């Protein structure tokens, strides 16, 4: 029986995935590395330092910087990201997400967040939805996606079993993490990237609590 829903944040609840991409693109350009939206699929869901490593590897510059220099670049990326958040004053939820979160809550399911972003609490607050979540997994103390740890931590905080959870992600790394956690995986985005998910919808507009539960039931029985 399903008892809880665990959500990714960037690219699922809000459109901040695009802002992370813009900020990394700007940092990469300064390092003379070009990244495009196809490459960005590999960055989605991946932590800040790990993302930088992937970018450096992509540009053939993995051994060009000291740890200290890398930290400075990562901090700069976070500053770009935060200034984009501020510029983008009207930070909004993706279509239909508020309704979906409320439906889940009002139907008596528990709700948790499993985001790799250290900015997640700030974003939930800016959206005014912090109180909807029973728990937030903490990316500073567990391994990042594609390891299952953030989802396992979220389930443990909610005191539910992993097979009682449905998790929603827009990232390849996130779907892998959900699968490794033994949960039902819902993907939002292009099926080409998310084929390991149990159920994929192109955008958040197509997400509905009922349909997700039907898909889970069909897989289970
Ligand atoms: C999410 C995003 C990634 C981002 C990561 C860390 O998983 O999908 O693009 O790199 O969080 O975010 P942070 O805000 O801590 O830099
Ligand atoms: Mg995401």
SS summary, helix count: 10
SSE pattern: EHHHHHEHEHEHEHEH
Strand order of the main beta sheet, please? 3-2-1-4-5-6
| Helix proportion range | 40-55%
- What ligands are attached or bound here? 6-O-phosphono-alpha-D-glucopyranose, magnesium ion
**Arithmetic mean of pLDDT:** 96
**What is the alpha-carbon Rg in Å?**
17 Å
The parts where pLDDT drops under 50 for at least 5 residues are none
Structural class: alpha/beta
CA-to-CA gap between the ends?
12 Å
In percent terms, what proportion of residues is strand?
5-15%
Shape: globular
- Main sheet overview: 6 strands, parallel
Strand tally is: 6
Site (Important for catalytic activity and assists the phosphoryl transfer reaction to Asp8 by balancing charge and orienting the reacting groups): 115, 145
Binding site for Mg(2+): 8, 10, 169-170
Catalytic activity: beta-D-glucose 1-phosphate = beta-D-glucose 6-phosphate
Keywords: Carbohydrate metabolism, Isomerase, Magnesium, Metal-binding, Phosphoprotein
Give an overview of the whole structure.
With 221 residues, the protein is of the alpha/beta class. It has helices at residues 16-30, 37-43, 48-58, 67-87, 97-106, 120-127, 149-158, 172-181, 191-194, 209-220; strands at 4-7, 110-113, 135-136, 165-169, 184-188, 199-201. A six-stranded parallel beta sheet has the order 3-2-1-4-5-6, with helices on both faces. α1 (16-30) packs across α4 (67-87). It is globular. The termini are close together. The structure holds 6-O-phosphono-alpha-D-glucopyranose and magnesium ion. It is an enzyme of class 5 (isomerase). This is Beta-phosphoglucomutase.
């Amino acid at each position: 029986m399903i008892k809880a829903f665990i959500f990714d944040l960037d690219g699922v609840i809000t459109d901040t995935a695009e802002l992370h991409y813009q900020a990394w693109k700007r940092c990469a350009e300064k390092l003379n590395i070009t990244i495009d939206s196809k490459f960005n699929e590999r960055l989605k869901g991946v932590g800040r330092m790990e993302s930088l490593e992937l970018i450096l590897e992509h540009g053939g510059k993995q051994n060009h910087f000291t740890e200290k220099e890398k930290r400075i670049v990562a901090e700069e990326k976070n500053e770009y990201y935060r200034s984009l958040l501020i510029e983008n004053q009207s930070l909004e939820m993706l279509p239909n997400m508020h309704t979906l979160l409320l439906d889940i809550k009002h139907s008596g399911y528990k709700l948790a967040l499993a985001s790799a972003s250290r900015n997640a609490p700030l974003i939930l607050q800016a959206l005014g939805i912090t109180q909807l979540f029973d728990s937030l997994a903490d990316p500073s103390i567990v391994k990042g996606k594609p390891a299952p740890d953030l989802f396992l931590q979220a389930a443990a905080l909610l005191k539910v079993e992993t097979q009682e959870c449905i998790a929603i992600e827009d990232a390849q790394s996130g779907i892998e993490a959900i699968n490794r956690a033994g949960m039902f995986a819902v993907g939002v985005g292009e099926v080409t990237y998310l084929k390991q998910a149990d159920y994929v919808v192109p955008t958040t507009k197509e997400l509905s609590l009922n349909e997700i539960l039907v898909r889970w039931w069909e897989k289970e029985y």
